[in-house]
Known about the structure:
The protein is an alpha/beta fold.
Amino acid sequence: MFSPMRMVVRLVLALVAALALGGCTPNAMIRSSLVTTPDLADYERWSADCRIKAEAAGKDPTLCQTTASIEKTEAYTLFFIELDEQGRFFDRRQIDALMDYLQERRRLGEAKDPPKNGECFATGDVSIVTFVHGWRHNASYDDENVNIARETLAYTALGEQAPPHPNPSACPREVIGVYLGWRGLSTTTGLQASGDAWWKEPFYFLWEYPSVWERKNTAEDMAVGSARELFSLLRTFQNRMNDARELDTRCEKSRQSQRDAGAGDVADMFATYQCKPVRLLIVGHSFGGLIVYNAVAGQLIDNVTQGLDVLASADNCSDAGRGDALVRSYADLILLINPAFEGVRFEPLHQAVSARARVAPGGKGAFCPNQRPVLVAVTSKNDWATRFAFVVTRSKFINTKSMNSNFGDDETGYIWREEGEAHWNTLGHVRRYQTHLLVGAGRLVGARSPVKAKGRSGYEDGLKAYCDDATAAGGDTLENAMRRCVCGEPAVFQASQDQGKNMLCTLAAEEANAARMLVGEDLKPWLTPLPAGSGNPRQPAWRHTFCGGATFVQRDSYDASERFNEPGKEQLFVPHSPSSPVWNVYVDDKTIVDGHGDLQKTSFRTMIQQLYHITAVKEYTRDTFRTFGAMAKRRFEATGCSDANILTNLWWNAAGRVGSGN
């Protein structure tokens, strides 16, 4: 017989069992086996010595690998920097090792006449990729976010191999990773480690969920702590290296060196890319996005507002000229993935961007047509943590009476409604903040798409025909390679072949695709062409499909007057400029990002790499991208990619992808 009391007792016992199997993670440094800069000169010897010392002390020798503060491979060097619960460096020797290593590169960059080692000038060129993890993650060796960092660094290193090299060394930049670790995972359960059977999920949820708010508060401490020093040190290093004296002379020597080595028409490459010794990408996930944003938001707002009284003229919008109207980035690109912080924190930057977006193109304060994105926030529609759990947490801990409750139905009443929405939701789930959609190629839609009742559109029908043609045509020409990389999975490197050659061919296809899409010169009418003669490669309702199928689609400007039933109020209209430096992207397709921590889909990871690659383009103009495309075609043909078999058979499955939804 059913007994409510018996059911309650069982639930209590189950919860007690879950608590008994679980526990709190220690507030201690995980990467405690410290590696110094001199150790990196012979990393294998350091590893061997560490194992010998561990065995002599009766410790597990594998700890030398799993707790090393630096991981070094042939492709990259990954530094771990850890913060305690107050946001302070656990051990400054971790950050000291990183900065010592970078300062060695800086000394090379400041040498008056850098020596040449083979085909390379010793100029200390590096590409730095910084990761800040979020909730339920840390710096453990087998942490999922650590593995994603490793994969991203390896892919970045492959991308650096493609000649010619538009940097002073005339060779690939060295790839350096920085992983900022903190106690994002504060509670664990034995159930979590033992499998993922459905009946275990409730216990895991009951034990782990209560840490959401407490870990958010900790992340806020991280944001105002030593994380700011880390970002500032990296930014200062980049600025000093990229502003070094005689940089132009070194770039010219590099170009001439590659021309002499027969690396192709390097003049076009140097005319297309920025010649910079240091590139910097900063990625923050979940509460890591909160840490990154809080640390850099003030500088970003300053950078946006500095152009309010500057005319968006050709000279003011040119890097070669004054460039005063351009919004400078804190890094080459800042990427927030499923950022877990309330919209009200984003509001000041949103207001500053909207003020400039309202200015007519070319006017005083308008964004430059060649403006690069400096901040891209990506939020998944089906991210339960930021879409639902965050709201529930806010409802318990937020005092709603403090949110401008004095506003009524007068002319400023809309502020109360906007602030209420921004208080309850993360920035990614606030519609007026959203500037782009991110979908798979199979769901290519736009603000002006003729969407049909069953979820299909004329664009999707055109896309199916386009991809069917690509499948039938094969991959032996650049045009077919571009078609296929848009329609399905990205090129897959095959270990049985020349990986370097495959990478060159893949990059050529990606670059040619980027050039074609950004100037609106696609071969099929289902893509909206851009107005003829426009100097801006991005126009209203522009879209760009990356190799792998991830597609940015600009959202309509947001008009809240209809929603709030207050027509005629200009302040309720939020324009989305195609040249905005801040992109708030809503992922409406689980084939790209599915949930809060799903960052491993190939289409998403390769999209990040391509976006980072495109931000290195010198000028965002039609002429630049036409040159970009022509250069890619020459490289594709010169490398002999028609024989490289760079594209696999994992491309387009019309029945499973076209028109598929969540």
